[in-house]
Design goal:
This protein is of the alpha/beta class. The chain contains nine helices and 13 strands.
């Protein structure tokens, strides 16, 4: 699904929480009706992760995270034209939520105990696994093959944190601020491999400009349970988002969205159960 970017006009709505604007029906239930008198909802996504969160050169947004965000926003009563997507890089996510820059974040954001000290998570809504992306034909078959080599990941990601635990201890980790920079490094030989979630790596590898250049090693080094980050303590929003995610799976929209975004490029896991985080 593609969306047009909303001009930055409605920054005013920043301080309004989702809770404050959710609509109540006659029965006291959240109705999801569209009576928000035009205010926008701000949702944090990635801008450079094909298949997940992508801002196209045309200004449109695409990817599974974008589809999940759009569905959830709609359930909260916001039509697509009332969504303002905001870039939240890996290292910025906790701060963006605690500052109130965004209402929630749908950005390949793994649920971890450490992060739960600062933010709350709805979901999970997708299970991915950490992997390595290498040049096609590379003889790197497992993490230990990287001993002494240079590995790229992104600052503030679980992938960078896991490197010492799961990959050769003598690997030199280069932390960039985005995965697209890591990909450029892999292409020009500045690094020997890129590590992050297989969902993200598969999306990059499938890009036309990278055709036949890269391959995933297939290591499944961790479970990455993607959650929707909300401000710590905002249980009302958390519950509404969880309800929306449950409905998205139940009515078949989740299945359609994974298929449309990942199709043949990524063997995605079935929809996780809300509240069940796989260790
Ligand atoms: N899912 C992992 C994380 O939340 C890696 C992907 C990312 O950096 O967004 O850290």
């Amino acid at each position: 699904m593609k969306l047009h970017r909303i001009p930055a006009a409605a920054a005013v709505a920043l301080v309004l929480s989702v809770t404050a604007t959710a609509c109540m029906g006659d029965d006291g239930q959240e109705s999801g009706s569209k009576s928000h008198s035009g205010e926008t909802i701000r949702i944090g996504i990635k801008y450079d992760q094909p298949g997940l969160g992508m801002k196209e050169p045309s200004g449109e947004f695409s990817g599974f995270d974008v589809d999940v965000a759009t569905y959830v926003a709609n359930e909260l009563g916001y039509d697509p034209e009332l969504i303002e997507f905001v870039e939240t890089k890996s290292a910025d996510r906790e701060n963006a939520l605690s500052r109130g820059d965004v209402n929630f974040i749908v950005a390949t954001y793994s649920i971890t105990e450490e992060r739960k000290e600062k933010v709350d998570f709805a979901g999970p809504y997708l299970l991915a696994h950490q992997d390595l992306l290498v040049k096609a034909g590379s003889d790197i078959d497992e993490g230990s093959d990287l001993d002494g080599g240079k590995l790229c990941s992104v600052a503030g990601s679980t992938s960078a944190q896991n490197v010492k635990k799961n990959i050769a201890p003598n690997t030199r980790l280069k932390e960039y601020s985005s995965y697209s920079e890591c990909l450029a490094g892999l292409q020009n030989g500045a690094v020997d491999a890129v590590t992050t979630d297989d969902s993200i790596l598969a999306g990059f590898a499938a890009q036309k400009q990278y055709e036949d250049q890269f391959e995933l090693v297939g290591l499944r080094m961790s479970n990455e349970n993607y959650g929707i980050g909300v401000k710590k303590g905002d249980t009302a929003t958390l519950e509404l988002v969880n309800k929306a995610l449950q409905k998205m799976v139940r009515d078949g929209s989740w299945g359609k969205a994974v298929k449309a975004n990942f199709g043949l490029i990524y063997r995605y896991e079935p929809a996780p159960r809300i509240g069940v985080v796989k260790e």
